[in-house]
Specification:
With 114 residues, this protein is of the alpha+beta class. It has a domain at 8-80: Arc Repressor Mutant, subunit A (Orthogonal Bundle), CATH 1.10.10.10. Helices cover 63% and strands 12% of the residues. The chain has five helices and three strands. Strands 1-3-2 form a three-stranded antiparallel sheet. Strand 2 and strand 3 form a beta hairpin. It is elongated and about 75 Å long. 13% of the residues are buried.
């Protein structure tokens, strides 16, 4: 994704990353605050460090996680822009229709009948 241009490969990487429950759980953790790789590995005691790193790699390739080195630590930050782009492309129009339907329903209910 460069300069706001989104191609099908970018969407494929995002959907593939979101398709796995462990990766979604990682994103849930990062939604609250950035975390070190060690903290994320500790949050998944049933997975070895290598597997957790593979999940983080998939999230990075999808543009959902940005890693930043600070000394010996690797801090992982959520980048919600790819999810926002999905929302804008596929969900936004449907939500707009729903809001319009609710507005019409409200207006109909508030109109006095004779």
């Amino acid at each position: 994704m460069l300069g706001g241009v989104v191609d099908d490969d970018t969407y494929d990487r995002v959907f593939k990353a979101l398709a796995h429950r462990t990766r979604r759980r990682i994103l849930d953790l990062l939604r609250d605050q950035p975390r070190t790789t060690g903290e994320l590995c500790g949050a998944f005691p049933d997975l070895d460090r290598c597997t957790t790193m593979q999940h983080l790699g998939a999230l990075e390739r999808a543009g959902l996680v940005i890693a930043q080195r600070k000394g010996r630590e690797r801090w992982n930050h959520l980048d919600a822009l790819p999810i926002k782009l999905i929302q804008a492309r596929w969900i936004g129009d449907y939500a707009r229709s729903s809001v319009e339907l609710l507005a019409t329903l409200k207006a109909d209910l508030e109109t006095p009948t004779t």
